[in-house]
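Sequence only, no structure available. Ideas?
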Amino acid sequence: MVDVFDEVEEQLRAERYRTLAKKSLPWVAAVTAAAVIGVGGYWGWTSYQTGLTDKASQAYQAALQTAQTQGPAKAFSGFKAVADTNAKGYKSLALMQMGAIRLEEKKTQEAVGYFDEAAKVAPSPMIGDLARLKSAFALMDTASYKDIETRLTPLAGEKSPYRVYAKEALAFAKLQAGDLAGARSEFVILANSLDANTSEAIRQRAQAAMQLIDSGSAKDLAAAVKAAATLPSAPPMMQMPPAVAPNAAQ
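Reply:
I predicted one. Tokens follow.
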């Protein structure tokens, strides 16, 4: 009798499984279809983004070539075409190039606008902080120390890739604002900095500024501030060939 009961119970379980399977089949099919569609959609989106980045890379390189052969002004429209794309990395780089062109044309406010926009759309701190730094340097001659300090202080943190440039800019801003003691203290730190990012050129500028302060001379102040604006046009990783750069500039 036990064997019979076991057999009947097994048959009932099997029937329940079949019924459950029939009821679940539409849901299983739907989930499977959604998964397939999801994978396909992700692959399609990735391919689309890669295509945008490749086109932006080629357009950006072409604009750089135009700038080198025909002059920056002639390349402005080429950079603007890149800035109008959705490839965030190259969009940000192009906006910075546009800002640099306008700055060279003495159109400071327009240049600052491009730098600020580049910072907003930048896909990484490496690119965004460079744009913010360029914006602050563009305003050095016209903005108040408070405005410059507000822009530069976040960039002077120990984790910032441009901390040394930001600290130097803050020192020159203090010098320009008449805070000689505060500026000199900052220059002493820069001149003796052990930070690997502190170049010999920065140390030399700091020493020159200290000498300027100690001599009591202010006639070369504007030239000193201008000299501090010698920034890298872009981090080394941004100047790699198009085949390498897209990953860093997406």
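Confidence is low (pLDDT under 50) at residues 1-18, 27-32, 38-49, 233-250.
Hope that gets you unstuck.
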